Amino acid sequence: MTLTLPDGTAAPADAARDLSALFDPASVAVIGASNDQTKYGNWIAVQALRGDRRRPVHLVNRRGEPVLGRPVHRRAVDAPGGVDLAVIAVPAAGFADAVDDALAAGARAIVGITAGFAELGEEGRQRESALAARIRQAGAVLLGPNCLGVLDTTSGLRLASNDMPAGPVGFISQSGNMALELGRHLERDGLGFSRFASLGNQADLTAADLIHGYTAHDGTELIALYCEDFGDGRAFARAAADAVGAGKPVVLLTVGAGQASMRGARSHTGALTSDLAVIDAACRAAGVDRVASVAELAHLLGALHRNRRGGGRRVAVIADGGGHASLASDLAEAHGLVVPEFGASLTSALAAELPPSAGTTNPVDLAGAGEQDITSFGRVLDLALSADEVDAVLVTGYFGGYGGYGEALANAERATARVMAEHVRAHGKPVAVHTMYAERPAATELKDQGVCVFGAVEHAAGVLGRIAERSERPAPRVPALPNPAAPATADDYWTARELLRNVGLPFPAARLVHTEDEAATAAREIGGPVVLKAMGLLHKSDAGGVALGLADETGVRAAHADMTRRLAPPGYCVEAMADTTDGVELIVGVRRDPRFGPVALVGLGGVFTEVLRDVRLALAPVTAAEAESLLARLTAAPLLHGTRGRPAVDVAAAARAVEAITAVAAAHPEIDELEVNPLLVTPEGCLGLDARLVLGS
């Protein structure tokens, strides 16, 4: 996909924009500065003046009255030395004039706080596009409009309505409240923002542009997003993949679980590819972690800040109570982790450190050892981390609360926390500590020493599960789209069949016919049982446009006459009846998403596809290796490898078919949906038994 600019021209989706004036400007002007504490012009002016020791800050309003006790200019062009970055917080009617003023003052970046553009309808969208084009033509960039500001704590730039904590996280958001909530979570965890940018309407700068800028920013260690509109989704995915490849994790919070945009879907593929499923496919391609809440976003960012060295799925659970031990073990397994029984050597070593009543086989129950000898936590953690059979450790329960029993135990608990942190650093394996007392001194000591601490055990288990899953991911790969092929001009079964057959996907022998006599002749020439399919119907089976197992010419003639009477189709396909014995029916489809382009779907096929909904998605085109991975993730995957006396089918042939189908769809931008259902996979190979395509309107 190519990004279409507001002026109608095309620009390379991956072209990096110069964002230096947006995040580290030489000077700032707040146009619309105000003394009214209910207005953004006041809030942003207050924050801007906090950085006036780093750069000149010019306050601008038409009345020329002092603001916050500071002199103002009536126009930005009156500011001595010019303006590098202009923040515009004026009513929509005055926004265009303010833009002209800012550009005349030399602004290389503009932040549009003003609302009242594309969010109001087509007329507003046209005005917004014209302004964005004007700003681009002047060589500047626009953030917004309808945004909430920008912040860079590494350059001392604070041009958002609220103060936010400093730290290693670069945040991009379409919601100001999300930024404020995330900031509160991060601050409690000793973290904060390196940069924050409010996307607004993305009339010019997009999420992809900002990700590129954050990737190149030395002060940003992790990139987080709250995004509802991805614009050019492929550009977003490519930018995120570049960030992940550069060692900067990208974590996304989004919405879109609904089916509203799929109401017009005209095939099984369309009905099964929800917005959120498509976003997940893009995230997998780009190596992005998607989360479901602000709290989960904050927890994962904190964990990735403290440990990105990866870890496997075998987790040791250490608890100081049987209930916490059992609950944590269940939660760990629910998050894809394994709580293996320890071998004799580790079990014996643990038993030597703990009371006779302790559990030592995993989970480990200290059984009161905390009260008797708080230092046992450190020794048990060291033993678990030292074991080759352990990839990660989950500590859960009361640790952090023992200090409440007296000063001596409080001091010992804090000292033990430091020892535990030393073991975590020495072994380099992921460790998550859940404590009922996450704000007490020992827990704070653990956090200060770089250990992940959680107030809920489910959060601790979830983070360890995520870290384990991350260690198994392939390198990010967002597939490139091929050059467009000669467009398809018809949308019937025969066109779809031949389009796919020409790239090597086998179909049964067939003839395209119109009359009853032609159908009978075709059946005789093909030989054996045949299928008669009516052309011009999207869902032929549902409409009664398919007759199976026609053994002779008489049957073919009867079926032809019946369909002609009921359906009056423009033509028919007479096709050899396939032997489905020992075969597995799959569905392979591609839908062209308006944001992310062609999206491939692979799943269990046949007439119950939409009932079973056993499907997996990926950005198209997919390679054969990626197709095998998709097939392996199906719930029905065991059917492909033989079960209950059935032979294994040729998975490699199925994967090659998926590769071919998705390549065709990706090369035909005029095709909205392309589907083979069923694709019959047998021990000898695969065969397309039906195909459909939907052309764009």
UniProtKB/TrEMBL annotation:
Q: Which Pfam families match?
A: ATP-grasp_5, CoA_binding_2, Succ_CoA_lig
Keyword ATP-binding on this protein?
A: yes
**What's one GO MF term for it?**
metal ion binding
Task: Identify the PROSITE patterns for this entry.
Answer: ATP_GRASP (PS50975)
Keyword Nucleotide-binding listed: yes
ATP-grasp domain: residues covered: 497-546
Alphabetically ordered keywords of this record? ATP-binding, Nucleotide-binding
The cross-references to SUPFAM superfamilies, in alphabetical order and at most eight, read: Glutathione synthetase ATP-binding domain-like (SSF56059), NAD(P)-binding Rossmann-fold domains (SSF51735), Succinyl-CoA synthetase domains (SSF52210)
Q: Which Gene3D superfamilies match?
A: ATP-grasp fold, A domain (3.30.1490.20), ATP-grasp fold, B domain (3.30.470.20), NAD(P)-binding Rossmann-like Domain (3.40.50.720), Succinyl-CoA synthetase domains (3.40.50.261)
Q: What is this protein called?
A: CoA-binding protein
Which species is this record about? Streptomyces broussonetiae
